[in-house]
Specification:
CATH topology of the largest domain: Jelly Rolls
CATH superfamily of the largest domain: Jelly Rolls
Structural class: alpha+beta
Radius of gyration: 18 Å
Shape: globular
Number of helices: 10
């Protein structure tokens, strides 16, 4: 894969400037790509945790199946994301991971991450930043579920996806693809699929979100951010000041 086509390199470049050697190390994480299908489970809860994977194409989500048969979606992964970092210190998977749509993933064992730790201080710092960001994403999701209205929950989620896709060049002037079904959105936000549909209708009537199947258009992104009370610091901080000081 050419460096300009690498989602993981674009993602890491949001945090700090990368050397050619850093980019080469990241490219090695995208070797041996495997095509996967929509709905395919990459691993299940309690499976052995011995590797990570990167997504070079497609979307995925982590989830927990509940005792009553329902499902809670925990995180949504986009092209360039590393999946499984949260379980680096565990022998078993803490949650399952499944594909949202067709895609390409690249699996690599835990020891490859240790190689990066030894070879690059810059990439090590970025990996710590990404792990911190994953934690904050979960924190924001918790606040969303516990303290925001249904409208704010969906507005916050849609705007967060817009911001994340913008960082990897996958959003074009407020237009982007959101391949989650209404049921999946409900599982992520604690809403019924009917409530999700009604909320999208209210957004359309207010001129905030235009949705056609899996295509989203935001006529006024800042108005949607205001409705969601969105604070973008957890997505847009970088490590550049840290490296500039040394």
């Amino acid at each position: 894969m050419d460096q300009q086509d690498s989602c993981i390199i674009r993602l890491f470049s949001n945090y700090c400037a990368l050397s050619e050697e850093d980019k080469r190390l990241l490219q090695k994480l995208e070797e041996s790509p495997v095509e996967v299908q929509a709905g395919q489970t990459l691993w299940k809860e309690r499976d052995k945790a011995s590797e990570f994977c990167t997504i070079s194409k497609g979307w995925a989500y982590s989830f927990r199946n509940m005792g009553d048969g329902s499902r809670q979606i925990l995180e949504v992964y986009l092209p360039g994301d590393i999946i499984g970092m949260r379980e680096f210190a565990f022998s078993q998977r803490l949650s399952g991971v499944a594909m949202i749509d067709d895609g390409v993933v690249c699996h690599f064992p835990h020891h490859r991450l240790l190689e990066i730790f030894r070879a690059s201080t810059t990439l090590t710092a970025v990996l710590f930043a990404i792990a911190s960001r994953h934690q904050v994403l979960l924190t924001e999701r918790l606040v969303n579920l516990a303290r925001r209205s249904a409208q704010q929950r969906l507005a916050h989620f849609v705007y967060e996806m817009y911001e994340r896709l913008t960082q990897t060049g996958s959003s074009n002037d407020g237009h982007f693809r959101l391949p989650l079904s209404q049921e999946q959105l409900g599982d992520a936000l604690g809403l019924s699929s009917v409530h999700v549909s009604r909320t999208f209708t209210s957004f359309r009537d207010a001129g905030l979100v235009l949705r056609e199947r899996h295509r989203i258009s935001l006529p006024d992104p800042q108005a949607l951010a205001a409705l969601a009370e969105f604070d973008d610091r957890y997505l847009n901080d970088s490590l550049r000041p840290l490296f500039n000081d040394h």
